[in-house]
């Protein structure tokens, strides 16, 4: 391989060193309650395991042609209870965020400051007198 010949003037110039990159400051993370986050993570893991367990139980019963609805109903009710608890924790976390302006009067779901209708149930968030 033939190397190109570098002129003497260029060889004597000091080599440029790469500029040191300034560490970028980490974006400001929203401050959320660590206990609520830990509780949400625990509930989410429990929900996932219970959901897989319910599906597995139904599958095992179905392949044996011995489906017991009482067992499945009990497991589904427990799963629904954990899901409701998870939803409540997620709503509390959403309320703590800066963009949550309040709770819907109809369903209790948090909404943003610019919302005119509830994102969950669709009911009007603007009082009837103010809308007219």
What does the model show?
By secondary structure, the chain is mainly α. It contains four helices and two strands; from the N terminus they run αααββα. Strand 1 and strand 2 form a beta hairpin. It starts with 7 loop residues before the first helix and ends with a helix. It has two domains: 32-97; 99-132, no CATH class.
In short:
With 132 residues, this protein is mainly α. The protein is built from four helices and two strands; from the N terminus they run αααββα.
Question: Which tags fit this structure?
Answer:
4 helices, 5% strand, 2 domains, mainly alpha, 132 residues
Strand content: 5-15%
When the domains are counted, the total is 2
Strand order of the largest sheet: 1-2
Number of strands: 2
Dominant shape:
flat
- Terminal-residue CA separation: 83 Å
Order of helices and strands: HHHEEH
Average pLDDT score: 79
What's the helical proportion of residues? 40-55%
Low-confidence stretches: none
Structural class: mainly alpha
How many distinct helices? 4
Radius of gyration: 29 Å
Main sheet characteristics:
2 strands, antiparallel
Topology:
Elements: H1 8-12, H2 34-63, H3 69-96, E1 100-103, E2 110-112, H4 128-131
Antiparallel strand pairs: 1-2
Helix pairs in contact: 2-3
